[in-house]
Write a structure and sequence with these properties.
Length: 482
Amino acid sequence: MSYDQERASRIGHVPTVLSPAVAEAMKRWVTPSVSVEEPTQITSRLIPLDEVPRDQRPDPSFTIAFDGSNQEVEARAGFPSVRVGFLQIAGVYVDILRFLNANRSGLVDARELERAQITQTVNAVLPGSNVTIKGFTGKESWRAEFDRALHESGIDDFGAKFTLADALMTIHGAPGRPAPHAELAKCPSCEKASSPVQTVPPGGGRCSQSGCGEALHLADVLRVYEEFSDEGENLGPLNRAMNIAERLLLVAYIDGFYREDPSRLSQGLFITDGPLALYGPMAPMKSKFLSYWEQLCSDLDRRDIAAPLLVGIEKTGRFVDHARAIQDHIKPGHVMVLDTPYVNQYIVNQKPEHFYGQDEFYGRRFFYRTTTGEVLVVTVPRLPSGRPYEKPQKNPDGTFVSGPEEQLASYPTLRATLEALDLLQTRLYPNAVIPVALAHSASSLPLGTGRSVLTLLAQQALNMPRDTISLSRFKPPRYGQR
């Protein structure tokens, strides 16, 4: 690490560039996810969208897309260890029919497009390293403020305010019936796992372990605090917090429709940024999302109501890289089924028997090349029940059995979802759809001036020395419903 203001020599890179060891090492490496060696492995897995099974349902009349953004800034000039994190989450409702009618004359009617959408924005701030609540440690401060953010952030589109904490309790309970408490795997303070597992009510509690008794928060069940660092950046837990907030905002809307008018769910397409999955310490929560989804769809089926369309769309990552690398082998209007042997061999570089997706996913990935030639990496849930990824089963001859989790019949919403996404494409960005682009636009925390404003806000709030620029020069953004 360099000293503050210390700069590297302009030719400091030369020894590394000329090093034979460096050159030889890189010759040994390959990039499996972006290489294409056997096109038949791709084409044998393609299915025309017209041949994909479709359930009986009305055409979607609206879509709600969710996206988030975050930034961590230095709250004191010259002291990079003093940091504050900002989150902004957006849900954008789009009236599909009104949106499609905005293009009747060959040119998009911007006013009609504006009327076709409603935006709801949720934002929060979290302490980073070297920023604490008085009398609390850094990790305790982060836990308390994350919990506060979940309890204070929410929506009132369906009447009384429904917070992200309410959504978290709902996935621990059932559709329309939040649980009275959530299970906690271990105490964040003493780090002891209890048997039986202790629970936390929405308002928090105390650890029941002998000799502990420390405060517990509802947000602790997400375990995001485990990645918090008292020194340096905390982009990891900030990203985790953003991702779970997006998912909980999604649940808030789905459960709102369920309580208000369940039949409306059959007309909705709900889109999340990224796959239907949770990673890191939060991964065990995927079972709660899976349970909620199964209970929701089962109850709707008893009422003879089609399940809502739910899809995750990825913008980056190795699956997106692989899809772009092989897109010339995928015909427009075709779906590629990504069975586990293919994923292990060509994308994640694992052994054939590797149990891919064991811990994180509540949906399964597919590649789809749209009718206009764009490529989408989508994740859709399995119906009516079951995990989207199962342990590979080997035949006596060494090949692997394709289980029901890999059959298209287990994904009856896939065809209707892809047909709707085909209608909502945009050429503003490669492989993009309008609702996600709108949600990203609404949630984005810009670099440059935007980052400067957030830094000034943090400095002012913490009474830190700051630049001479005043926040009064900047008009506050419009949050909430439009």
